[in-house]
Amino acid sequence: MNKKICVITGSRADYGLLKPLIEEIKNDPDLHLQLVVTAMHLSAEFGSTYKEIAKDGFIIDEKINIKLGSDTPAGILNSMAIALKGFAKAYKKLKPDIIVVLGDRFEIFSAVIAALVARIPVAHIHGGELTEGVIDEAMRHSISKMSHLHFTSTCEYRKRVIQLGESPKRIFNVGAIGLDNINRMKLLSKDLLEKQLNLRFGKHNLLVTYHPVSLEFNTASVQFQNLLSVLNQLKDTKIIFTKANADTGGRIINKLIEDYVSKNPVKAVGFASMGQLRYLSTMQFVDAVVGNSSSGIIEAPSFKIGTINIGDRQRGRIRAKNTIDCHPTKESIRKAFKKLYSRGFKTSLKNVINPYGDGNAAKRIKQILKKFDLKGILKKSFFNLDFDY
Question: Which CATH superfamily is domain 188-351 in?
Answer without folding.
Answer: Glycogen Phosphorylase B; (3.40.50.2000)
